[in-house]
Amino acid sequence: MPLSENERIVRDFLLLLYRESKKPNSTKVSPQAWETLKDLQASLASGNDDIKTIARAIAKWCKTHQYREILQALQPVRGDAIDEDKDPVDDETEQQILRLTNFSLRFVEETINQAQTQHEQKS
């Protein structure tokens, strides 16, 4: 079953954030974006597990902070932006993100925290 647009946005955002957190110098997530992730987490904290609400919070955070690179990375290239059949993923967190069909607010927040911690360790 194909993902809805909102599910795709959340999944691709989490994958992007997680993958960029592994790099010492992220090309798609600016230092300012890493610093303002707490703003996104604050807006998510007042929400619920509704995928539409989570996707809107992500898009609003990107627009508020003028993170055009992230928004562009979330745009679909051909249907789904992330090709799941390309290469098998060995990373457990990435596998969890790719397999998710029901995104919970808790999982989104935990993944953001994990990516932020990993980014701080790499920089």
Report on this structure.
The model is unreliable at 77-85 (pLDDT under 50). Helix 1 packs across helix 4 (51-64) and helix 3 (37-45) runs antiparallel to helix 4. The protein has helices at 5-21, 31-35, 37-45, 51-64, 68-74, 92-99, 105-122. The protein has one domain. The radius of gyration is 13 Å and the shape is globular. The longest helix has 18 residues, at 105-122. By secondary structure, the chain is an all-alpha fold. It contains 7 helices and no strands.
Main attributes?
123 residues, globular, single chain, mainly alpha
Helix-strand blueprint:
Elements: H1 5-21, H2 31-35, H3 37-45, H4 51-64, H5 68-74, H6 92-99, H7 105-122
Name the overall outline.
globular
Model regions low in confidence, pLDDT < 50 over at least 5 residues: 77-85
H and E order: HHHHHHH
Q: Structural class of the helices, strands and pairings?
A: mainly alpha
The percent of residues in helical segments reads: 55-70%
Distance between the termini: 38 Å
E-strand count: 0
The number of helical segments is 7
Count of all domains: 1
Structural Rg = 13 Å
Beta content: under 5%
Mean pLDDT: 83
> Biggest β-sheet, characterized?
none
- Oligomeric state of this protein: single chain
Would you kindly provide a brief summary of this structure?
This protein has seven helices and no strands. The protein has 123 residues and is mainly alpha-helical.
